[in-house]
Amino acid sequence: KLQDPLAPLGGGSQSPIDLPQITVVGSQSSGKSSVLENVVGRDFLPRGTGIVTRRPLVLQLINKRSTNSEKSSKQKQDLLDLNTSENQNDGSVSNQKEDNVDEWGEFLHLPGKKFYNFNEIREEIEAETERTTGNNAGLSPVPINLRIYSPHVLTLTLVDLPGLTKVPVGDQPPDIEKQIKSMILTYISKPNAIILSVNPANADLANSDGLKLAKEVDPEGKRTIGVLTKVDLMDRGTDVVDILAGRVIPLRYGYVPVINRGQKDIENHKTIRAALADEAKFFENHPSYSTKAQYCGTPYLAKKLNVILLSHIRATLPDIRAKIDTALKKYQNELVSLGPETIDSPSSTVLSVITDFCNDYNGVLDGHTKDISSNELSGGARISFVFHEVFKNGVYALDPFDRIKDADIRTIMYNSSGSSPSLFVGTAAFEVLVKQQIKRFEDPSLRCITL
């Protein structure tokens, strides 16, 4: 509930309340998105090469079974969807649709709309990303909030962040590494953030970008949990037992090894449930992990994250409550100081603010202000000084007969009298001469206004 109103503030450093949440960090293509999909049990995240996650995704998993009325109304829709989905094999489609009666997603930016088809969720994430970042490789710190209701998930909140990269590719900005690092740091540097560091097991842990970044903000590893992906791709005869035992880089919450689907599995439409069954089989039958199989795999990771997050929320809630209460009191007092009419009638508030402003302004001009300065002229006194001293001197500095010679006066007199000779200066001649001189007042007058 708190995350939704705070979402428009960017979720990063701008957010006034530091909410406990699990932030997923790792290098590009380390398997972050696959880990999240395994936890949810669904394909719903965009895939591809390069930077796919270009905005933070706040993923709220809610364990919930749909009601019978929801089921019956959805089953009709599912039958229609079944007929239109011909691009996948029949078995996988029917499984997918049958389960979708119980599972759906909702986006914060589309209130009230339920997505029962998880392919549509992926399309909406891509579309919403492009609305903010454009269709090039730009990044945006504004999060996308997605809730997934399902009986197959544990209640969790995870934040998926862009993968760490070093070299800009294609039309990516040259400072892409700096941009991603700064975005990740705004999330993980908060004391209440639990860092889920995803690291490929077939690479040296000491070279892990995600772990390195986590160490910067959490040097003792007190709020970091490690995930080891690609365990099945390790060289024969090697394993991650030393890492799990905390002998390499110890973390308070330890490490959980998992196995994601490979690219070939995804292309062959291997379901996540089948992948989870294979994952369990791998750990049970592997000589290094068989004795600790119950502490390996995605289901154990989800359970562990759920326990960690709940205990973390329990520990931080009193402090968060106090912060919110303090902020509420501050803004309520501010509202009261503006007057009761602010709540009842906004239009009269605007009118009274404008009236008060005008009264204050007139007071400054008339010298009735509270803060009369002894250092310099201000308000009405300054206007008076500019007008009576600066402007007067500017006007007096102009010689009325400068630039007008007797010969000019004579010529204008002759011209204005036409064919008959004139004895006195006519009105027309006088106006011509005076207008020339009045024009010279323009500069001092403009300077007077500016001052």
Task: Please provide a brief summary of the model.
With 451 residues, the chain is α/β, with parallel strands linked by helices. It has helices at residues 3-6, 32-40, 68-84, 90-99, 118-133, 176-188, 209-217, 241-244, 263-267, 272-285, 298-337, 341-344, 346-366, 380-396, 406-417, 427-438, 442-450, and strands at residues 21-26, 57-63, 104-107, 144-150, 156-160, 193-200, 224-229, 255-257.
- The count of DSSP E runs of length 2 or more, i.e. the number of strands, is 8
Question: What are the low-pLDDT stretches, counting only 5+ consecutive residues below 50?
Answer: 66-70, 75-99
**Oligomer class:** single chain
Structural class by sheet pairing and helices: alpha/beta
Protein described:
With 451 residues, the protein is an alpha/beta fold. The protein is built from 17 helices and eight strands. The protein has an eight-stranded mixed sheet, with helices on both faces. Helix 3 runs antiparallel to helix 4, helix 14 packs antiparallel against helix 17 (442-450) and helix 15 packs across helix 16 (427-438). The longest helix is centred in the last third of the chain and has 40 residues, at 298-337. The model is unreliable at 66-70 and 75-99 (pLDDT under 50).
Q: What is this structure's SSE topology?
A:
Elements: H1 3-6, E1 21-26, H2 32-40, E2 57-63, H3 68-84, H4 90-99, E3 104-107, H5 118-133, E4 144-150, E5 156-160, H6 176-188, E6 193-200, H7 209-217, E7 224-229, H8 241-244, E8 255-257, H9 263-267, H10 272-285, H11 298-337, H12 341-344, H13 346-366, H14 380-396, H15 406-417, H16 427-438, H17 442-450
Parallel strand pairs: 1-5, 1-6, 2-4, 6-7, 7-8
Antiparallel strand pairs: 2-5, 3-4
